[in-house]
C-alpha cells in the first residue's frame, strides 16, 4: 500500500472519529443534532464518501501499474514464441497455450482490422467469480485475471454490487433457455416414537428459466489510437465495454421485473423487517439488527452474506447504534475492504430504492443463491464505415445474460419502510 493511500486512510479515520463525537454528544444530551451539527455531519459524511472514492481510485491505479509491469516483463523476458508458422501463440514454460479469446496478438490484430469484422471473446476455462475481490494484492488483487475477457468481466463486476456480493456465475457456450431448480421450502423433521411411522416431508422445488437477454454497447476509437501499439487498447476497450454492459445488466439484476428483462433480486427477495412507525421509510439500529437475524444462521455464515443499499442510505446507516450505545457500523481497517455493518460487508448500488414508504431500501443475505447466466462470452464487432467521415473505428460489444434468485426460502431478505 502506497504512502498516499495510507494518508488517505488516516484522514478517513479522523473524519469518522469526528462524526462519532458529534453523534455521541447529541446522544449523551438526549437531543437531536442542532442545525450547525447537522451541517457539520453532512459535510464530513460527504468528505468520507469522497475519501472512499479517492482510496479506491488510488488502489485501482496501483493495481493497473502492477499489471502493466507484469505484462511488460512477460513480453520482454518471460515468454518464448512457440514454433510453427501458423500458430502465433505465445507459450511460457509450465503454462498451457492461450485459449480462444486469450491471445492478445490475435485480439490486437482484430482491433486493427487485419482479421474479420467480429471476434468472440470467451472465458478461458472455468472461472469462479464468486471469490473475486478487487483492491490491493493482499486483499485479493492478485486473484484478478489479466486476460481480456477476465478484465472485461472484472469491470462489469466493479459497477454491479450484486456481482461483487458473490452471485453464482454460470457460463454456457450457447444461449438456449436452461431450467435451474429453485428451492421454495425445506424438508422438516420431528420426533418419532417407537413403532410409529416416520412422516414424509420432502423439500419443495420449482424451476426458474434462465434465458439470454442481449445487452449491447458501441465504442468509437480513433485511427491514431488503433495504430499506436504502445497504447493498452485491450485494457481501454475492456474497461469501457465492461462498465457499460455492467451498468445496464446491473440495473436489471437489482430491480428487473422478469418480463422482457432479467428477474432482479428485489422481485423474489423475502420481507425481513418492516420499519418503525413515526418515520416515513426510516430505519433504526434495532431494525437492522432484526433484519440481520431474520436471515437464518446457515445463510448468515456464508462468505457471500452481505448488505446492499444505495449511497444515501449508507449515510443514515452510519449513525445507527445498538441498545448499549455502540455503533453497529464499523469502518474498514484494511485497504480495499468494504465497511462492515454488524460484522458483514456493505456494498452500494444506485439501483436499490431510496428510503421511503414501502420501499425495499436495504437488502441482506446470502447472494450466492442468486444465479447469473452468461451465454457465449462477449461478441466484439468492428465497423470502419459507421463513422467513415470522422476516421473513427466503431466497435460493438454484445453480451447475453440472465439472472434469478434460486432459493426462495429466505436466503435474501429486505427492509421495507413504514408510514409516518
TrEMBL record:
Residues 77-89 have a biased composition (Gly residues). InterPro entries: Phage_capsid (IPR024455), Phage_capsid-like_C (IPR054612). It is found in: Virion. Residues 73-105 are annotated as: Disordered. It holds the Pfam family Phage_capsid. This is Phage capsid family protein. Transmembrane segments: none annotated. Residues 140-410 form the Phage capsid-like C-terminal domain.
